[in-house]
């Protein structure tokens, strides 16, 4: 660690589940938060002063209530070391509690930053293990750290993750409504068990989802996004969501679904139709009296990085 040096970390937004890949699949998007940190020897980590601009800037907490600080603290403990506090500046572009991985981004950036400050005792796989353990599921954590399209499985506290690259001519159109939906609430509406026919349906759907991305076959995407494990239960929590998805498809998207646990809806579309898809999605929310905005995003291929 170098006193007065500014450490800078950039972390991408992520979309989890991708329809049928509940708690397993995720993808990294070209929308980033940036964390700048200047350590000050002698300052306890929990006394770090934090300023922020952008999304949620007025709601930033400090001390262990802040996910970045909490993740730094946890990572230092894991390494058996201590790290000082200092001054932190956040540039937040990932909307909070909208299904675009803001909590994974915060945890991943805290773990990554602490690792840098300690001289990198952990490799990327270990950074992913610490992040996923804190988050509870690895489907946002894996793409936040590895970039690209990821599959990740958490078993006995250990994450197995793999990434594949995705065609660059596809765009992600994320339409973000003006209300928050917390993951706990969106998980609380899900059943504890499912009939075998639902399990079989999703195994089939996720197989075609993989084919759609790996072999660049957009004709399989709608089938691949067709989930029966979480999407039907969550649609009721997002006014207008069914119309937004239908509008996206009618405007030329290959397919659309809830991003993570919502309320954002994500569509995958060719670049030349992306704006039209975004406008149609905003109109779908408007019909349900919900204001929203859309972003046309590229996919991120790098995951979290020092800049
Ligand atoms: N897989 C998680 C869920 C992602 O759908 O609940 C949200 O963090």
TrEMBL record:
It is found in: Cytoplasm. It catalyses: L-homoserine + ATP = O-phospho-L-homoserine + ADP + H(+). GO terms for biological process: threonine biosynthetic process. Residues 230-277 form the GHMP kinase C-terminal domain. ATP binds at residues 95-105. Pathway: Amino-acid biosynthesis; L-threonine biosynthesis; L-threonine from L-aspartate: step 4/5. One of its GO terms (cellular component) is cytoplasm. It is an enzyme of class 2 (transferase). It comes from the Bacteria. Keywords: Amino-acid biosynthesis, ATP-binding, Cytoplasm, Kinase, Nucleotide-binding, Threonine biosynthesis, Transferase. Belongs to the GHMP kinase family. Homoserine kinase subfamily. Catalyzes the ATP-dependent phosphorylation of L-homoserine to L-homoserine phosphate. This is Homoserine kinase. It comes from Dialister succinatiphilus YIT 11850.
């Amino acid at each position: 660690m170098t006193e007065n040096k500014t450490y800078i970390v950039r972390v991408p937004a992520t979309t989890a589940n991708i329809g049928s890949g509940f708690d397993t699949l995720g993808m990294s998007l070209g929308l980033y938060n940036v964390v700048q940190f200047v350590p000050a020897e002698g300052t306890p980590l929990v006394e770090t002063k934090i300023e922020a601009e952008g999304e949620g800037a007025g709601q930033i907490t400090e001390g262990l209530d802040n996910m970045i600080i909490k993740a730094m603290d946890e990572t230092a403990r894991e390494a058996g070391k201590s790290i000082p506090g200092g001054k932190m500046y956040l540039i937040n572009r990932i909307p909070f509690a909208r299904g675009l991985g803001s909590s994974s981004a915060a945890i991943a950036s805290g773990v990554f930053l602490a690792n840098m400050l300690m001289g990198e005792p952990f490799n990327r796989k270990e950074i992913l293990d610490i992040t996923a353990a804190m988050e509870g599921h690895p489907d946002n954590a894996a793409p936040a750290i590895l970039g690209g399209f990821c599959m990740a499985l958490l078993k006995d506290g250990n994450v197995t993750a793999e990434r594949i690259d995705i065609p660059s001519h596809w765009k992600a159109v994320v339409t973000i409504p003006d209300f928050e939906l917390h993951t706990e609430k969106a998980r609380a509406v899900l059943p504890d068990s499912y009939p075998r026919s639902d399990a079989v349906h999703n195994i089939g759907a996720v197989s075609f989802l993989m084919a759609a991305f790996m072999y660049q076959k957009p004709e399989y995407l709608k089938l691949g996004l067709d989930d029966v494990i979480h999407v039907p239960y969550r649609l009721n929590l997002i006014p207008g969501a069914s119309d937004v998805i239908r509008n996206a498809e009618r405007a030329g998207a290959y397919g659309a679904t809830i991003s993570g646990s919502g309320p954002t809806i994500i569509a995958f579309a060719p670049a030349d139709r992306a704006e039209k898809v975004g406008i149609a999605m905003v109109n779908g929310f408007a019909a349900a009296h919900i204001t929203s905005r859309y972003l046309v995003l590229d996919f991120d291929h790098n995951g979290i990085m020092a800049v």
